[in-house]
Amino acid sequence: MNKNTAITIFESLSSAVRLDVYRLLIKMGNEGMVAGEIASTLNVPSTNLSFHLKGLTHSGLINVEQEGRFQRYRANLPLMLGLIAYLTDECCAGKPETCGEFSPESICSQCADSGSGK
Amino acid sequence: MNKNTAITIFESLSSAVRLDVYRLLIKMGNEGMVAGEIASTLNVPSTNLSFHLKGLTHSGLINVEQEGRFQRYRANLPLMLGLIAYLTDECCAGKPETCGEFSPESICSQCADSGSGK
DNA sequence: TCAATAGTTCAACATTAATTGTAATATTGG
DNA sequence: CCAATATTACAATTAATGTTGAACTATTGA
Hints:
2 copies of one chain form a homodimer.
Chain A: H1 3-12, H2 16-28, E1 33-34, H3 35-42, H4 46-59, E2 62-67, E3 70-75, H5 77-88, H6 109-113
Antiparallel strand pairs in A: 1-3, 2-3
Helix pairs in contact in A: 1-4, 2-4, 3-4
Chain A binds a DNA duplex through helix 3 and helix 4.
């Protein structure tokens, strides 16, 4: 995970249509969904959906697999885990003692290691 | 957490400056940083930084506290946890058996409950 | 009160993204 | 091969965001 990847992921999820698509695909799990089903479920014109699917695919948040004349899309959950790690990687870096009340549920590995400081 | 809040958070983090600011503030923990320090650390003109700090504050990702003539900013980590929960809330909803290879590290509570399906 | 410092607001301009309809591509079944 | 279906690519319009410098507000210390 690098900065540009992270920015692309955040851009991907900063539109209502794309966020709906991503959450829908997470809900569908490994089964995924083909483009036409997504369009009719979310009531988005297919030409517009295609634009947004492209963005999500480009960021890696969703994957696509061809199935005859259909394109089946699935969420890529591991990428989200990588993003979270990227954000919290350096939490309280070098000063775990300042982390005490800061990190609420051991999202910060430094704090967890140092026993919630202060 | 609702959809609009989530979109605002993603928009907040979809610019290089704002992502840098947020990660810097996570690194600084409860100590936080005043606006001028942030500007000089990241080499961003103060007028531009102010624009981005406003966006981050509006989304709730960072908080601000006045300290004399300074404004001290801190990251709001709990909000990030809420966002993650919002995304993965409905993972594999209704069909945990489809979740098997999908959720890699029990990010999906449904899968965890059903013993990773398949 | 005055000068210095810290930040923000404003207005102009530049850049980038979203939406729509139309046309193009690709696969399937007859 | 042809017609139908699924989806994507293109181009034009509209809208939203990012950046900058200059002006403004508020606080501090002499």
